[in-house]
Specification:
There is one protein chain. By secondary structure, the chain is of the alpha+beta class. The protein has one domain (3-81): Translation Initiation Factor IF3, CATH 3.30.110. The chain contains three helices and four strands; from the N terminus they run αβαβαββ. It has a four-stranded mixed beta sheet, with helices on one face. β1, α2 and β2 form a beta-alpha-beta unit. The longest helix is centred in the middle third of the chain and has 12 residues, at 50-61. The relative contact order is 0.23.
């Protein structure tokens, strides 16, 4: 990832959804994205298993861009760029 890509992926907001079960983690992620401006980046911490499988797929289905995910201790950090919802 280039320096320009890294700076473009700097999170504007962060949600810690460890311990939050499906589908509530997706609902909370979706609601947070709705409060953000197009192009802003949300960092979401999710548990392994269903959350890391389902939330990235669901936000992509909503039209947002999953920029990446990385393992962080016992969880995953997912970076999501808010796209225009029109």
């Amino acid at each position: 990832m280039s320096e320009q890509e890294k700076s473009a992926a700097t999170p504007t907001s962060e949600l810690d959804l460890r311990g939050v079960i499906c589908p509530y983690n997706f609902v909370k992620t979706k609601l947070k994205l709705e409060t953000m401006k197009e192009g802003e980046v949300l960092s979401v911490l999710l548990d392994e298993g269903d959350p890391i499988r389902n939330v990235p797929r669901s936000v992509a289905n909503e039209g947002h861009t999953v920029l990446g995910q990385e393992r962080v201790d016992q969880a995953y950090r997912v970076l999501i760029r808010r796209e225009d919802s029109d």
